[in-house]
């Protein structure tokens, strides 16, 4: 329904005679109202099992396969990397190995947020995905060159370049998932995406030590090949998304017919801050839950191999690395299952709290093994940890899209990824500094026990924040965070109705303002025309007196008045 139709149905309280005249003029105009609200069209989404959407899902999954593979390469072969550098008469310390993780995460504390802004306002998903994939390939190639030549600073620069694209690509991946699977299948889609991405990390822990036995450069180049595979899948995904945009209805339940994007502000930082300011309080708390939860998963992987080699049973490097592959393989199978469960049952915050408790139990058992209080097989602990990780990941990521406005979805995911990377950058530095300090130089066991205490504390904070959101859910989000599936449907319908009412009110207000402006313009035009007629009469009278040769009397205002229909 047009803006003018709404305007005619609900006239504002103005002078009726002026408004009737304005309506006749407005109805003759075909131009839309400036800043008119976008039109929302209901469309029927294609089924989630359609071959095209399944192909899209596969391509989305493959986006981060290569980056997950190479991210954990230093943690998969730490001893072999040190030995390889030693063969070239160079040293590589444990703190320098951890710096490979920190330098990856530091730029992403900011760039993941700007990556979301760039995707939202400049490149769009397709161009953004290709750009960030290119950074990953370039960075891994430079890292491989540094390892091959045993130049630490070259490898260090490669990890930095790799980090420029790694987390921003995750933001794009999340946005693609929301775009194509928003609705009741979103958590399931996120579970599949997370599980497939972790296949890259799992296979890395399984295969890279074997490849490194042939040669460390060969193992690193194999990871470069995995990044090339992801880049090819990125190009395919961009092409399929482009085809879908031209030839078929959008997959979400609402299609929005939008005009050109507003021009980007010259001050890009101010623009980002404005979008960040729209992120609700509950989303900020969820961001920190994500950070502390993932520190207990990903940062643990960077030191877990050394913990199992130096404490408790003291396994060899190959066995310890094989244990590290278990959580990721568990998440491959359980993440879709948990995602489906979150979709059907809801209660996302409850599941996040349970996942945090599971991680605390896992870390506490590792502490007991390190202190030689117990001797629980690591594969049992890793199975338990993988289950907790899969449950947490399947609940955290899709929950964010339920509580942030759609227009800043990429920016919100970028902020979540940025905060996550703050933890991923800070905690390896803290752990590396503690392990290298003189305080623990002669206490090998304590050197590897301290990180476990840090991980337990992080998961404890995650649990406390989850409990806080459970208590404040209704006040902060109207009950969206921990709603059941049926409750979420009701809340979504209420939101849709409220949005339509807001759009109608905005359209009415725009039409009313346009009508008032038109009436004022007509008044000014009538007044100017009246003044012009008065001047014409005065000029003609003066010319008539001059023609008769009569001396013109003093100027006086004519008594003739001209009334406008609007005066």
How would you describe this structure in keywords?
disordered N terminus, 567 residues, 1% strand, disordered C terminus, mainly alpha, two-stranded antiparallel ribbon
Number of distinct beta strands: 2
Biggest sheet: strands side by side, in what order?
A: 1-2
Number of helices: 18
Quote the average pLDDT: 78
Give the overall silhouette: elongated
Oligomer: single chain
Which class do the helix and strand fractions yield?
Answer: mainly alpha
Strand content: under 5%
Helix content: over 70%
- Point out poorly predicted stretches: 1-48, 249-260, 556-567
Q: What pattern of helices and strands is seen along the backbone? A: HHEHHHHHHHHEHHHHHHHH
Rounded to the nearest angstrom, the radius of gyration is: 32 Å
Largest sheet: 2 strands, antiparallel
N- and C-termini, Cα separation: 34 Å
Structural notes for this entry:
- With 567 residues, this protein is mostly helical.
- It has 18 helices and two strands.
- A two-stranded antiparallel ribbon has the order 1-2.
- It starts with a helix and ends in a 19-residue tail after the last helix.
Task: Set down the secondary structure blueprint.
Elements: H1 3-9, H2 16-27, E1 39-42, H3 51-62, H4 65-71, H5 73-76, H6 78-87, H7 94-148, H8 152-181, H9 186-214, H10 216-247, E2 254-257, H11 268-277, H12 281-310, H13 317-345, H14 348-370, H15 378-400, H16 409-436, H17 444-477, H18 485-548
Antiparallel strand pairs: 1-2
Question: Can you summarize this structure?
Answer:
The protein has 567 residues and is mostly helical. Helix content is 77%, strand content 1%.
């Amino acid at each position: 329904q047009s803006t003018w139709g709404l305007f005619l149905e609900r006239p504002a309280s103005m002078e009726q005679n002026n408004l009737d005249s304005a309506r006749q003029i407005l109805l003759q105009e075909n131009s839309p109202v400036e800043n008119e609200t976008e039109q929302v069209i209901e469309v029927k989404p294609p089924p989630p099992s359609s071959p095209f959407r399944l192909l899209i899902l596969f391509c989305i999954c493959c986006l981060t396969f290569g980056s997950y593979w190479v991210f954990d390469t230093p943690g998969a072969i730490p001893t072999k990397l040190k030995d390889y550098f030693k063969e070239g008469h160079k040293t590589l310390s444990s703190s320098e190995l951890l710096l490979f993780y920190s330098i990856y995460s530091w730029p992403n504390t900011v760039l993941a947020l700007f990556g979301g802004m760039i995707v939202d306002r400049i490149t769009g998903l397709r161009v953004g995905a290709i750009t960030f994939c290119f950074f990953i390939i370039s960075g891994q190639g430079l890292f491989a060159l540094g390892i091959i030549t045993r130049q630490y600073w070259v490898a260090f620069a490669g990890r930095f370049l790799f980090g420029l694209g790694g987390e921003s690509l995750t933001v794009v991946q999340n946005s693609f998932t929301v775009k194509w699977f928003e609705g009741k299948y979103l958590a399931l889609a996120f579970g599949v995406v997370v599980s497939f991405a972790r296949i890259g990390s799992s296979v890395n822990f399984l295969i890279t030590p074997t490849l490194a036995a042939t040669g460390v450069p060969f193992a690193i180049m194999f990871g470069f090949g995995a990044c090339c595979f992801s880049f090819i899948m990125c190009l395919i995904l961009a092409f399929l998304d482009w085809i879908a945009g031209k030839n078929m209805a959008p997959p979400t339940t609402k299609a929005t017919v939008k005009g050109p994007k507003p021009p980007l502000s010259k001050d890009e930082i101010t623009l980002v801050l404005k979008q960040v300011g729209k992120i609700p309080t509950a989303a900020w708390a969820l961001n920190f839950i994500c950070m502390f939860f993932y520190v207990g998963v990903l940062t643990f992987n960077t030191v877990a191999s050394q913990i199992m080699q130096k404490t408790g049973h003291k396994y060899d490097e190959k066995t310890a690395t094989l244990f590290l592959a278990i959580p990721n393989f568990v998440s491959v199978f359980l993440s879709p299952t948990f995602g489906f469960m979150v979709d059907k049952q809801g209660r996302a915050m409850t599941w996040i709290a349970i996942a945090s408790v599971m991680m605390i139990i896992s870390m506490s058992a590792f502490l007991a093994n390190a202190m030689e209080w117990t001797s629980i097989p690591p594969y049992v602990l890793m199975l338990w940890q993988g289950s907790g990780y899969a449950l947490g990941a399947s609940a955290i990521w899709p929950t964010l899209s339920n509580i942030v406005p759609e227009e800043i979805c990429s920016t919100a995911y970028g902020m979540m990824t940025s905060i996550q990377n703050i933890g991923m950058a800070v905690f390896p530095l803290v752990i590396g500094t503690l392990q290298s300090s003189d305080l623990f130089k002669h206490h090998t066991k304590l050197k590897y026990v301290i990180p476990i205490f840090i991980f337990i504390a992080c998961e404890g904070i995650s649990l406390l924040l989850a409990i806080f959101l459970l208590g404040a859910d209704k006040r902060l989000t109207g009950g969206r965070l921990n709603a059941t599936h049926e409750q979420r449907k009701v809340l979504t319908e209420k939101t849709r109705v409220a949005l339509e009412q807001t759009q109608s009110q905005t359209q009415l207000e725009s039409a009313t303002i346009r009508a008032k402006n038109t009436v004022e313009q007509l008044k000014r035009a009538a007044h100017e025309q009246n003044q012009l007629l008065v001047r014409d009469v005065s000029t003609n009278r003066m010319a008539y007196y001059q023609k008769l040769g009569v001396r013109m009397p003093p100027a006086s205002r004519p008594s003739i008045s001209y009334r406008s229909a609007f005066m």
